[in-house]
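Hello support,

Our group uses your service weekly, and this is the first time we've seen a run hang past the timeout. The protein is Sirohydrochlorin chelatase. I'm not sure whether the cause is the sequence or the server load. Input pasted verbatim:
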Amino acid sequence: MLESLDAEGVRDVVALPLLLTRAFHAKADIPAVLAEAPPRLRIRRAEVLGPSPLLLTALERRLYEAGLTPADKSSTGVVLASAGSSDPEAIAVIAAIAREWRHTGWCAVRPAFASASLPRTEQAVLELRALGCARVAVAPYVLAPGFLPDRIARGAADADVLADVLGPSPEVARLLLDRYDAARVPVLAALGA
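Update from on-call engineer: The timeout came from a worker crash unrelated to the input. Re-ran successfully.
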């Protein structure tokens, strides 16, 4: 792909990782691929998408689309279910997002992971039930359907509400544009634009 860009006369490229945390893919895989780019390409790498208040807004949008209302918020516990990672920084980011989101009025928010980390979605659902939350909702912190979101859905079997993945939401689109713009500004400055 990068070779074809070079062949087409493109010199300035913004690589926009569609990732929600700075885990292995962001730290190792993407830099390795970009390092193999033809030397004539000037590549700026945008930041990963998360964390961002826009993603919290998108998560709430998905919960409301799944049937919750703002009036349900104070009595509903939410499982923030991410793909998971063995990277401690990524796990800490998900835990921090859950803590932050809890302060927006939800009864409780617990992080959960589909792979590589604990707790799993089903464990977090049980924990919220044990806390006495009237309802338990699962909010997948993933961008698209697939194997790990399917695992999250199976773990949400005992929840009252399962939201859809973040997917094509206006908030995700805005965030993509923001990350792109932030990465391309230095390129434009270097070109004198």
